[in-house]
Write a structure and sequence with these properties.
The chain is mainly beta. It has three domains: about 25-115, Beta Barrel (OB fold (Dihydrolipoamide Acetyltransferase, E2P)), CATH 2.40.50.140; about 125-200 and about 290-310, OB fold (Dihydrolipoamide Acetyltransferase, E2P); about 210-275, OB fold (Dihydrolipoamide Acetyltransferase, E2P), CATH 2.40.50. It has four helices and 17 strands. The longest helix is centred in the middle third of the chain and has 15 residues, at about 110-125. The protein is elongated and about 75 Å long.
């Protein structure tokens, strides 16, 4: 039976948005007719790399070649299919078929992904802010699902203004975040993302503190002239080395705020104590930008010598 055209005004969300849904046969029939993208948890990957999905009223069957974009062409490794077990994936309902005497819903994840990719690539513009879910962490950056398993890269320099050595210093796999579309690769249809612009300017972050406070922080760098302590992901201050020259990166500390100098973008600190517990990334970020778009970002103050800015232009 021919399916109607997909409603392009659907908002494509990262996989896992509609967890724990139990479908009825009538819901599956309607989804097949209307082109609605559904999602459910993968229960098993069989010996032929086909995925078995739990739909509640029956099992779903995703053939290997329909399990991930690029699998059919050999551009995607088998691990992309195997690793879906116990994770939620999106799909179109293509029909129903009997397998060894049992009726299965025949599903396609690749068609859902391709539909989402085509729509997002033609409609999402540089500067748009979208929901994302972290899928993989690496030293050079983090990968994030921005809808139906379509993944973009947040390079490490775009994760935060405060420097980190690994993306795991800032994110956790499965974490829901917001990101900015930083660039698009038309030839390969790849998205490049950024996160730091949503974490606020120097002044916005510095306004959260006042001299005289003692607050927690994280050591990001130890230099001969001082120790850089991160107060927020987009704000660091400098503490005297004193007796703390051997502190490792990532160590948790408490610091006394001696002075805040906006015109020089400097915060002078003094280390009060060192914590044994590791500093973990937050489960949820508080963003300074709550809208759906950013056209420009200027981190520094106008009077400071150190000043970084970025323009986000529609393309």
């Amino acid at each position: 039976m021919k399916r109607k055209n997909v409603t392009m005004m659907n908002e494509f969300k990262p996989e896992g948005t509609m967890q724990n849904i139990i479908y009825t046969k009538s819901v599956l029939d309607r989804a097949m007719l209307t082109g609605k993208i559904l999602e459910a948890k993968v229960k098993m990957c069989d010996e032929n790399l086909n995925l078995i999905v739990d739909l509640g009223c029956m099992k779903g069957f995703i053939p290997k070649e329909e399990a991930a974009l690029g699998i059919r062409e050999g551009k995607t490794r088998d691990i992309a299919v195997i690793s879906r077990v116990n994770k939620v994936c999106c799909f179109f309902v293509k029909g129903f078929k009997q397998i060894k005497g049992e009726v299965f819903a025949l599903l396609s994840r690749t068609e859902a992904q391709q539909t989402a990719l085509d729509y997002m690539f033609s409609h999402y513009e540089v500067g748009d802010i979208v929901d994302a879910k972290i899928t993989h962490l690496d030293r050079f950056g983090a990968f994030a699902d921005i809808g139906c398993g379509v993944v973009g890269l947040i390079s490490i320099e775009n994760i935060s203004v405060s420097r980190i050595s690994h993306s795991e210093d800032r994110f956790r796999v499965g974490q829901n975040v917001r990101v900015v579309i930083k660039d698009k690769d038309p030839e390969n249809k790849h998205f490049f993302l950024s996160h730091k612009e949503l974490l606020g300017t120097w002044l916005e972050n510095a306004s959260l503190f006042v001299p005289g406070q003692t607050v927690p922080g994280c050591v990001r760098s130890v230099e001969d002239y001082g120790i850089f302590v991160e107060l927020t992901p987009n704000l660091s201050g400098l503490a005297e080395v004193g007796n703390y020259g051997d502190l490792p990166k990532g160590k948790g500390v408490s610091v006394y705020i001696k002075n805040i100098v906006p015109e020089k973008m400097k915060i002078k600190l003094s280390i009060v104590d060192v914590f044994d517990e590791p500093v973990l990334p937050p489960e949820k970020y508080d963003y300074f930008i709550n809208g759906n778009r950013i056209d420009n970002f200027s981190y520094g103050t106008s009077s400071a010598v150190k000043h970084s800015s970025a323009m986000f232009k529609k393309i």
